[in-house]
Structure formats: structure tokens, C-alpha cells
Amino acid sequence: MKSETLLIFLRDSRENTGRMAGLRCLLRPSQRMRGWMSLGQLPGAIGDRIVETIAGLYALHPLESADTNYGFGSACRRLARLRGNSDDSSPLDMRFRRLLACTREEVLSHLPEMMMGLKSADIPVNYGALYTDLQYWSDRVRERWAIQYWTSPTTPDEDEHVSD
Questions:
Q1: What is the pTM of this model?
Q2: Which of 22, 26, 138, 157 maximizes the CB count within 10 A of its CB?
């Protein structure tokens, strides 16, 4: 499935509270089948764990960024700075390092916890980039996220625009 097809569906569903509630069920293994009804309109979506995860995360936190230079590591860095987590032993930093150590299947189950933090701070997410990163989860993606998270921008405005 193409990410743009999924994102159009999710954006069109934003005001449908019933559908969004169903999509959030995709994040809980014991309730995934409740979310399938909401995904049924998208051919090939049911059973695709990446599509299911992106749909559930979007339903949880639909605030999105379309900035192509804004990745998930950048969003997490903004959260860390907002919370004043500047040392390597902060809970947020440890959660981010745990994400980087995950296999693809593991990262899918750990993302909702991080997304809750982004939601609580009203930090947008580039869902198109996140979808692509999960499709091609590898050391290269992990390195890009690490650069976005730990590389200090040279100006305050660059904090939101760390290049991939």
C-alpha cells in the first residue's frame, strides 16, 4: 500500500470519531480485530502491521507535519527539550534508545508509548516519513533517527528542520 493512499484515508477519517476509535484499537493486540472493520475500506490494509500501526498512531495523535526534513527523531528531540530531558539517563532518552535497538516488529509495539508523549506536548509527526521508515527499518533508518535526536542544530530554527 502506498503511504499517500493511507494518509488520505486517515485525513478523511479525522472527523469520524467512531472510525478513529476503531483505528486506535489497532494498537492493542487483544482488540486489533475491532480496528479491522475501520480499515476494511483499504485493500490490503488488514494484516499489514505497518499500516495498522500507522493508522492506530494517527488515530491516537492526528497532529501531523508535512515537512519532509522533519523525521521521528526530530519530533522526539523536541519532546525531550520541552520536558527538559537533557541527560543520557532521562526516561525519554532511555525510551528512545530502546526504540533504536528494536527489530521492526518490536518497534511497532513500542511506538504508541512515545506517541503518547508527543500527543501530550502537541508535537506533530510526519506520518509519511514514519511509514517509510518502518517499511525500510534498518540500521540506516536508526542512524537517521539518532542524528535527528542527538545532533545539536546550529540555530534554534533548525531544531525543527534537521535534514535526513
A1: 0.89
A2: 26
